């Protein structure tokens, strides 16, 4: 496995939700990611300290991580919060971004 040294400014982005405040709004996420990249961040972190990691199901978080990775498409580095109540779930979530 290759390693990459992380440098520069990383944005710990908030997770946009629909008007119900509970459903992740992936349509608003994509332009938000683009805006951050266009404004010079070197990396983006989702589901971090401001990303409401504990507010969404594993399936919702997996969809957010996959959407972010696909949309960013290696333009900048991506980190994803994979914290979970069990080690098994945390490993699954980490593998979502990597494979």
> What is the C-alpha radius of gyration, as a whole number of Å?
13 Å
Q: Residue share in helices? A: 40-55%
Along the chain, the helix and strand elements come as EHEHEH
Sheet with most strands: 3 strands, parallel
Shape: globular
Provide the spatial order of strands within the biggest beta sheet: 1-2-3
Mean pLDDT: 87
Task: List segments where confidence is low: pLDDT < 50 over at least 5 consecutive residues.
Answer: none
How far the N terminus sits from the C terminus, by CA atoms, comes to: 12 Å
Helices, by number, come to 3
SS elements, strand count: 3
- Secondary structural class: alpha/beta
Strand content: 5-15%
Structure explained in plain terms:
- The protein is of the alpha/beta class and 99 residues long.
- Helix content is 40%, strand content 11%.
- Strands 1-2-3 form a three-stranded parallel β-sheet.
- Strand 2, helix 2 (58-72) and strand 3 form a beta-alpha-beta unit.
- Helix 1 packs across helix 2 (58-72).
- It is globular.
- The model has no long low-confidence stretch (mean pLDDT 87).
